[in-house]
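User: Hi! I'm working on a homework problem where we have to compare a predicted structure to a textbook description. Could you give me the structure for the chain below?
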Amino acid sequence: MVQCHGCFDIVHPGHIRYLRFARSLGDVLIVTVSSDDVVTKGYERPYIPEDLRLDNLAELHCVDYVALSEDEWAGPVLDALQPDIYVKGREYESKNDPRFAKEKKTVESHGGRVVLGSGDVIFSSTEIGRRKSNTLDMEQQKIQRFCRSNAITPARLKNTISRFSDLRILILGDAVIDHYAHCEGARVASESPIVSVKPVSEEWFVGGAGLIARQAAALGAKATFVTCCAEDEGLDRIKSTLDRFGAEVSNLAVPGRGAYTKTRYLVGGQKVFKVDRGNPAPIPIETTTELIGALGELLRSHDGLIVTDFGYGLFGSTLADAIPELAAKAGKPYFADVSTNGQANILKFRGPQLATPTEDELRFAMADMESGISNLASRYYAASGAGGLIVTMGRRGSLAFEPPTQQGQRLRTHYLPALEANEVDAVGAGDVFLTGASLSRLAGEPMAVGMYIGSSLASISTGVLGNEGAPLPDVYDFFEQRAELAGE
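Assistant: Happy to help. Predicted structure tokens:
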């Protein structure tokens, strides 16, 4: 009995010759295949789901049996089958791989032997996938697989969103305004080599936590935006916008702490440069005390709390430490996110129901730019006590990690590629994603459904210039147009 073991993601000529050689060594060839959950070749892998990988190998004349292995290495299945011959690729001759050494020891302990393949034709599934991912339409296949495995259908998505109207959500964060100045004639100034533009029109959008309140209200939830800001023109703009959507604003006035304004200068729809105006500063201790009291009162009449820290000083250690205590006392979950400016650390929020940092934000929090993202996620769970983690990766999509149910258990992952490739403006995408993911959890849905709804909102939002979020009719139209949901 001969055994081969591996991922066999994209079966190529190297695999064929390797398996043919293995079959020539004995009477029966058994090929064991690593399941999707234990393939450790990057968040996008495997390219091909486990059932199709098994089917591909089963069709080969030289393969007698195939079996799925849900273990992280070949040892347990080698122990179970006890092959006479275990065949590995020729590349292991020069590899100092400790797992292969353990596999060899396991085979030999049962009286078997290890044989290395001929290695006459070398291909790489990783390299083939990297070079051919667009032509192979792997992203769409992954999206379809994600929806099938998580029972995501248009009816389920619409039913989930319909339940948002029963929710009252509290949003805490700094007052942020995104200002777009549309200009003409970008050129180099005569007096020095600087860009010269002439503004001709401007637009104002509510950003940050205010955008979350607007998006939640647009989806039917009752939203209350809590902030600490000077009673200035910027706050008036925010109040006016949110009032149109039926969202409330509760502000604890702090003189001199105006709304943080980000001005982007555009020429022909393209951003030329950005100017930030504001005074990032901590709020006074007496305001913090008042804010903690107000949050405790408001949480009684709301179903959950979303906190988003842009690093402008609102979330000092006293407030950050009080948030999980307030949520626990009220018996309400809270959800957390931070910005990418290197000043806000997602670990300051302990025990959130769900955190949605970007990969860079997670790496910043763990002070680790080298480890694999699964390793970072495991360490984040241990350090934070979070109930859920979704890492957003922009155009690469999002990656959810199910919390471990026991110590030492490997995290289960769900990878969802981005649903929209035609990105116009990514401003606010993370905020609307957090909105959809948080409301879905409050509506009783698992992380995977929240991922899809959040990704849908982000896709719609990034398809237009300016961070207006995603209107509800557009969301339903989006579901109807998605290929992975067709026919459901």
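For your comparison, note the following. DSSP finds 16 helices and 18 strands in the chain. Residues 419 and 459 are 6 Å apart (CA to CA). Good luck with the assignment!
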